[in-house]
């Protein structure tokens, strides 16, 4: 980087760069999962709209955004190889600002979570702990693709679902059926999280990060990712049938068929098509989450 370029770099990031750093595009999965838990709780969404709104904002723009900030700070050397246009390696997020934002968003998340009672606060604390453990040393769970994807899947889907169900019910433990669905979709989310690693193989390999594509090879990792997404949904279908929700089970099967078609297309060229599969196949997966939540709601599930 030339001295002229260095001199032109900002002393602090602009609000636009901060927004880019927090990655709004990644906020949807935990926000959606929280909403699924709220639906599955069986509680009135209209009567509890304030709790629903605060919870959705906590799951996405706060906790998830914090995880993105933490990840980008500790991945700055990897991003310099894979995605040098990102805020930190490009110099648009100067000095220690990336770390300051990660810490500040952690504190802000906990303050907002406290308004949701003990369940909301505890869930946010666990999610934030996983976010730091995923990216930051000494744990840096992402160095092992299995542990890293599992931590993200649990935080983004299962934890958010269970939190939505609990806070909507006034802090009451969600029933076993809701927790089973949350757990199953967390397993499926492990496969979704692996999709993000196909774009970063070179940098991960050079920096010693054992993502699933690095550990298993591209084709094997693609098969594993798809298997983890599909297998839990078979169990979900069986549970919905056993709970006397056949139409919801049939709807999930239809969504699975669409996923299977797109998965075959993705596996043929995993690196080139991972991003497109995330955009078109994953929405079918998360649509099944909401279908399942409504199936449970129709049975009076959740509390």
Topology as a string of helices (H) and strands (E): HHHHHHHHHHHHHHHH
CATH topology, by name, is Farnesyl Diphosphate Synthase
In the CATH hierarchy, what is the class? Answer: Mainly Alpha
How many domains would you count in the coordinates? 1
Oligomeric state of the chains?
Answer: single chain
Helix content: over 70%
Give the class from helix and strand content and strand pairing: mainly alpha
**Annotation, overall tally of beta strands:** 0
The first-to-last residue Cα distance is 58 Å
Portion in strands: under 5%
Mean pLDDT: 93
Total count of helical runs of at least 4 residues: 16
Instruction: Categorize the overall geometry.
Output: globular
Overall CATH architecture: Orthogonal Bundle
Radius of gyration (CA) equals 20 Å
Sheet with the most strands, sense and barrel status: none
Uncertain regions: pLDDT < 50 for 5+ in a row?
Answer: 1-7
Short overview:
Helices cover 76% and strands 0% of the residues.
Could you walk me through the main structural features you see in this protein, from its secondary elements to its overall organization?
The chain is mainly alpha-helical and 303 residues long. The chain has a single domain (11-298), classed as Farnesyl Diphosphate Synthase (Orthogonal Bundle), CATH 1.10.600. 76% of the residues lie in helices and 0% in strands. It is built from 16 helices and no strands. The longest helix is centred in the N-terminal third of the chain and has 26 residues, at 49-74. It is globular. It starts with a helix and ends in a 5-residue tail after the last helix.
